[in-house]
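Why do we care about 3D structure at all? Because function follows from shape, and shape follows, mostly, from sequence. That is the central idea of this module. The next example makes it concrete: a single protein chain, its amino acid sequence, and then its structure expressed as tokens.
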Amino acid sequence: MRKQQPVSDPFALMMNPQSVLAAIERSERLACLQSRICRPLDRPQLARQGSELDEFDCAIDSQPEAGEV
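And the structure:
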């Protein structure tokens, strides 16, 4: 396994992002990592029913805006 060379100027990486992506794709160390995709926000939320906060939100939303007539 070859040693990775440290980057002397990390800001130089921002000037050539394609070379960074190519290095990531060639990396053996990154290829060995296990990955999984976690999307906790994709789960459907349970609907709340009849809470005071929901009633207040509906009342505020039904009022006209300050500039509207």
